[in-house]
Amino acid sequence: MPDTIPPDSVGIVTPQTHHFNEPLKLTSQRTLPHYDIIYETYGELNADHSNAILICHALSGDHHAAGYHSMDEKKPGWWDNCIGPGKPIDTSRFFVVSLNNLGGCKGSTGPVSINPETNKPYGPDFPMITVEDWVNSQARLADVLGIKQWAAVIGGSLGGMQALQWAIGYPDRLRHCIVIASAPKLSAQNIAFNEIARQAIMSDPTFYDGHYYEHDTVPKQGLMLARMLGHVTYLSDDSMKSKFGRELREGEIKFGFDVEFQVESYLRYQGEAFVNRFDANTYLLMTRALDYFDPASQHNGKLADALSLVKAKFLVMSFTSDWRFSPERSEEIVKALIDSRKSVSYVKIKANHGHDAFLMPIPHYDKVFSAYMQRIEI
Amino acid sequence: MPDTIPPDSVGIVTPQTHHFNEPLKLTSQRTLPHYDIIYETYGELNADHSNAILICHALSGDHHAAGYHSMDEKKPGWWDNCIGPGKPIDTSRFFVVSLNNLGGCKGSTGPVSINPETNKPYGPDFPMITVEDWVNSQARLADVLGIKQWAAVIGGSLGGMQALQWAIGYPDRLRHCIVIASAPKLSAQNIAFNEIARQAIMSDPTFYDGHYYEHDTVPKQGLMLARMLGHVTYLSDDSMKSKFGRELREGEIKFGFDVEFQVESYLRYQGEAFVNRFDANTYLLMTRALDYFDPASQHNGKLADALSLVKAKFLVMSFTSDWRFSPERSEEIVKALIDSRKSVSYVKIKANHGHDAFLMPIPHYDKVFSAYMQRIEI
Hints:
The structure is a homodimer of 378-residue chains. By secondary structure, chain A is an alpha/beta fold. The first copy, chain A, contains ten helices and 14 strands. Chain A has helices spanning 131-144, 158-169, 188-202, 220-234, 237-243, 262-275, 280-292, 303-306, 327-339, 363-375, and strands at residues 16-20, 24-25, 31-32, 35-42, 52-56, 83-84, 89-90, 95-99, 114-115, 120-121, 150-156, 174-180, 313-319, 344-349. At the A-B interface, helix 3, helix 4, helix 5, helix 6 and helix 7 of A face helix 3, helix 4, helix 5, helix 6 and helix 7 of B.
């Protein structure tokens, strides 16, 4: 981190953990008997609790969305571009809540947590969690924080699916729903990429059917491959071209299978770094939650029908070069909202960063996002 | 195979092998002391040897491009759609040669062959082969067959790169060059996908640094993953949607990591089938040949300059939904040919099959391909 905290940062933040004793019934019909949720808050809750914003994280995200945990932390939270005083999610106006989802590996109850029935880590016995389950658990956190209605629920990618599910499942509990670089369900191609990532993890001999904690190891190669694959699909061909082109790491071809091109070196680095900060069982769970999400499936495939009870006003944003969650997928949500006579603003942002654009400081994105947020009454 | 051979099939074919005793100097500066090339031919060579066509295969292809090896063979060769009497590559007019490239695993010398220096399989010691090396070895096969000049050299994908290299490296030895669903060099994204596939293979614990033959095993999981990934990138999002959609294999969600969606089952099947017919070291070599190909690199990145001595007339074809070798990449070749004042016809074919389109029976493709081939004088 910089020597001084920048004036538009939320500054030093300290996560809090709430323990929930009431069992949570899950979509899979299994039950979590009790669980922890770790979260951070930025800004101040106003007197009538009308300025609260919920941030939902994506596949590999967590509760640490903005600011720094200490002066030693090198990088701020994952959405620091968008959260802070004067930023699109303006913490001088809003009270922002960001949590780690159930099944995560950053402090909320998940596969690395102790299973009370066995006194060993849950591992592969952790129940499958769906987007609906996350939203239900987030609603309980809202109760604890005294938030009857969010000014907005906001998320990108898998986080956008959670925001959408909030609007469907708790229509009275949010006024605005902001869905960024997301989709109403995964395509077969998306599922295929997830499946390859899962196979990479599950076929790693140190995976031990998910019981690797007990063997004091991690399925490093599998998780690395999963992350490398994810990473390529989050970038656009153009952004990779401008980032790496076909540059050789050592200036000339070596005719071997070690790193030759810069892009290979970058990918291996990304894969290795991920292994040190993420749990393989959590990765599996998160990809399945992505696969399963499909609110239209309970309405004969009609998304407009799934949205019929929605009350929130929507902002939907997509990015031109995002091929994992292309603008067409966002437009399916927009069309269904219009068909269902809901209020929706839609912006397709020109950006060559691929799916990762939603995390990037892009002036047009920042401007649109800020303008919408400023219009939210509190 | 059908009970009777269809009239537009080349029928039963028998591969032949030629042993080359003259050493082949490779781009890597290493030398293959001697080697075999396995090939098939379809049709008859005419008296003045002017009707010969060379087929160059792609990543996982081989010499068996058309017809059947026996009445028991279930499927014909990989390009049977395009090769046969009355088909675009009309064997009633042309004499067609199709070979397995060096480094392959179907009969030409490759990693599974015995290294004369050690009397063990080459394995990882097989020298790296480039597109230029393949073309040089193909030119020697042409010499053996008495073919001074090909009527056309034809290839799709990596095969298209070989066709392009023929036009550059042996300008007097081909009259037509047909480059389908190809590119003048891989993009960073393409290289990234190849790198993930290689990492999957090389990190498989049964890979043994490429010496798996000696351990009487194969890196099954790694090769499976590589193939699954390749497969997803050869299909388009649309074609996967129409093939599988989000269909569940057992009609309802099971909340687990076994196969849930049809697309997962398909991918696992494809991956497993590939392991039984392909060698992992060959896969590594072929992907590196793809990565390295970049004829413009010796001309300050100017493809038009690399093409300045070309004499062949070109037909370039691309497919709208091919995102691994997109139409824009074919158009780079077309533009460079035009800039270099060469003769080129270009057709972008509407098809939703992705990169695999070049192997598919698509009426417009068939029509354009046939029309061009019929104009070739013999």
